[in-house]
Each structure stands twice: as structure tokens, then as C-alpha cells.
Amino acid sequence: MKTSAEEQKEESKEAEKKKQLALIEAALYVAGRPLDLKTLGRIIGTRSKRKVRELARTLMKEYERRNTSLEVLELEDQRFVLQLKTDYASKVRRLAVRPLLTDGPLRTLAYIAYKQPVSQKQVIAARGTHAYKHIRQLVEMGLVERESRGRNKILKATEYFADYFGLSHNPVTMRRQLIRILNNIASKEKKQNQRKES
């Protein structure tokens, strides 16, 4: 049988765990992008990546149980993100204050992220001369970095880009994720076109 001191200790531990879960949830909400274990650990005051991972996974399971429009996902490179489920995103996207990018710069960004590292010359050849303006905008926003190699300028997506869009920092994994996303978009567009035709 537990003594009242043991019960108080357990209650205190449980209260601390709830507080840490709430802090992780708040951090993920405010950031609006994936956060790594180190960052989440700083928020809750621990250096133990194992503890942070366990807490973040507990939060992830809580969101699964709640069955709401939001979800906590664990990404392949040990980062966590709080986001809107895909089923809801397409229906409420137009309510967002304003999109991060218009279609042209977004397509240029997708091309760079998929082909990276890629020369600016190759991007212009594929996307047209208007892509110079897109590249300048993407560099200013911190989504793309430009590096000079002799007379060539090499472009690649930044870590901020990966974090913002919930993608891996590893270029090979990012490419696979982009293919999956583009295939899903193409599949949805095909279904919508079939519905319109019938």
C-alpha cells in the first residue's frame, strides 16, 4: 500500500508530465513548422532526447485518440510537427491570410528542391526568364540559398524550406517526399477532372 508521500510524489510527477506535454504542444503550435528534439528539450528544460521523444510520441497518440482535424507527426529525421490533416487542408486553405507564394515562384521552388543542387542556368532553361525574379524572391525569403562556383550559381533549398513544408533535411529523402506529394496532387486532380466529365 502506498504512503501519502509516495502518492504525492506520483501526483507531482504526473503534473510535471502534463505541463511538459502542454509546453511541447504550445511550441509546435507557435512554430508552425517541424521542431527537432533539441529545440523541444530546451522548451521543457531537459537534455534527454529519449525523454523528449517519448513525450512527443505521447502527444502524437493523444491527438490520434482525439480524432480532430489536427495531428502531430514524427518526421523521418526525428522532428515533430503539429499540422492540419490533409483532408481538411484543401477545404480551408483559402481562409489562410495569404499564401506564402504564388504559383510561379512555388513551381520554381519545387523544381529547385527536387533537382538540388541545381545551377541557376538550368532552372532558367526549365522555368523561363521570369524565374530570375522567382529565385531572387526565394533567396530573400530564406527558402533557397545561392552559392557561386566559378561562373555558375548553384541553388539548393534551405533547412528553413524543409522545416516550413515539413520535409526532411536529407535531399534524397526530401526528393522522395516531393514525389509522393506531387503524385497525390496529380491523383486528386485526375479524380476531380473525371467527376467534372461525368
Written account of the structure:
It is globular and about 75 Å long. The chain is built from 9 helices and 6 strands, in the order αβααββααβααββαα. The strands form 2 sheets. Strands 1-3-2 form a 3-stranded antiparallel beta sheet. A 3-stranded antiparallel beta sheet has the order 4-6-5. With 198 residues, it is α+β, with helices and mostly antiparallel strands. It has 2 domains: 4-93, Orthogonal Bundle (Arc Repressor Mutant, subunit A); 99-198, Orthogonal Bundle (Arc Repressor Mutant, subunit A).
Offer a concise description of the structure.
The protein is α+β, with helices and mostly antiparallel strands.
Feature tags:
198 residues, alpha+beta, Arc Repressor Mutant, subunit A, 2 domains
